[in-house]
Amino acid sequence: MRYVSTRGRAPALSFDEVLLAGLASDGGLYVPETFPRLEDAEMRALRGLSYAEVAMRVMRPFLGGSIPDSDFAALVAAAYAPFGHPAKAPLKQLDSNLWLMELFHGPTLAFKDYALQLLGRLFDHLLRRRGERITVVGATSGDTGSAAIEACRDRDAVDIFILHPRGRVSEVQRRQMTTVASANVHNLAIEGTFDDCQDLVKAMFNDAAFRHELNLSAVNSINWARIAAQVVYYVWAGVALGAPDRAVAFAVPTGNFGNVYAAYVARRMGLPVTHFVVASNRNDILTRFFETGVMKMAAVEPSLSPSMDIQVSSNFERLLFDLYGRDGEALAADMRRFRETGALAASDERLAALQALFDGRRLDDAGTLAAIRETYRATGELIDPHTAVGLAAARAGRRDAAVPMIALACAHAAKFPEAVERATGVRPRLPSRLADLLELEERLVVLPNDLARIQAFVRAKAGRRAAA
């Protein structure tokens, strides 16, 4: 298994090289040279297996033999052992053929745990084998940061720097990052938006000298290993509802497009998926693109679902790569124009191909509160704002009532207690293991949206740890 860049100029790499590299050297994102296939018989054989066993079988083809099966099985088992539900990703039926997949049973109560708990262990395994250190840098709109920190905390060969937009994440999200006292963890509150944070991280990776000096690696969904680990729960859910002998559909609340892209990969591997509903809040660049074929940047507006307050969805480039017939040169040219002009237009043929498989839906804050309220009244379930956006999109975007629609519950309601209480009158409680979160001391540094300042901070802190 080899991986190629969406922009066509970076060398092809193996899985372990892609894991440690994150972003390609030409600024593109790594994708498999060819997608592995799960045959129908292999999919049927997954029925009745544990989540860890399914993860092992689904992800193994992506490794290309870079990690022995016995080692990988141990890493997977350890990654999912601390999850708070025996099924790891349980399905709940809310209505006729409408299902909710709960992806908040990990250590930080968000779907990012399903990939990052494994990613931290993969880093450890490969770095010990190579005798190397890495500096992880990442941007977060809310949940990636805490999940990445939880996965990388106290690891001797890793320093982790997480950038978040100051004042634009919930208090619980912020505190899950800033109350970790580990010496290798650094939280940077950036004066700007998530897109600013993401651009800063990409700029650090594109600075070849800085990248080499600090041996940078990524935990954002630009890292292919993140995508591969997220493919698992789509296959898990599809098989639970009858795949490959029954098709399913998915509705995914979407910011950076990594989660729904993982669903697309599951389909490329053979999971029978009729279509995907891509759910956005008021920051609806993707919905507008699926409707009109024009991707046009606008100002990022704060919302009740801050993890989706994004205008530039990095992982969408991976989908475009296939849409462009895997022509990296053509895609790179269009992505440059998009950055220069703020707009990208799809041809009629490409738009038709997208619309055959994807529906874009949007929900504003009033609609989000209504969806939380109505779900609680109808089912007794408390859902967070991101889940509410996805669930409303699932109801609105169904194409065939006979096909099971699976909406993703991407975060625990207690991560957004104010919004949930406002909608339902009930304040969701944090699990007991996080009960003292609001009392712990915070550690963070506020920095301007200035690449040189941030690089100097990262260099100083990572260098001090490496010399110790």
Describe this structure in a few short sentences.
With 468 residues, this protein is of the alpha/beta class. The chain has helices spanning 15-21, 40-44, 51-63, 69-80, 113-130, 143-152, 171-178, 194-206, 208-214, 224-240, 258-268, 285-292, 316-323, 328-341, 348-357, 365-379, 385-396, 417-424, 451-467, and strands spanning 3-5, 30-32, 91-95, 98-102, 134-139, 158-165, 185-190, 216-218, 248-253, 273-280, 294-296, 343-345, 358-362, 405-409, 445-447. It is built from 19 helices and 15 strands.
CATH architecture of the domain at 91-106 and 224-424: 3-Layer(aba) Sandwich
Classify the beta-strand content into a percent band: 15-25%
CATH class of the domain at 91-106 and 224-424: Alpha Beta
* Arrangement of strands in the largest sheet: 3-4-14-9-10-13
Question: Number of helix segments?
Answer: 19
Number of strands: 15
Q: Uncertain segments of ≥5 residues (pLDDT<50)?
A: none
Helix % is 40-55%
Largest sheet: 6 strands, mixed
Give the N-to-C terminal Cα separation. Answer: 37 Å
Taking all Cα atoms into account, the compactness measure Rg is 21 Å
> Would you tell me the overall average pLDDT?
94
Global geometry? globular
Structural class: alpha/beta
What's the CATH topology name of the domain at 91-106 and 224-424?
A: Rossmann fold
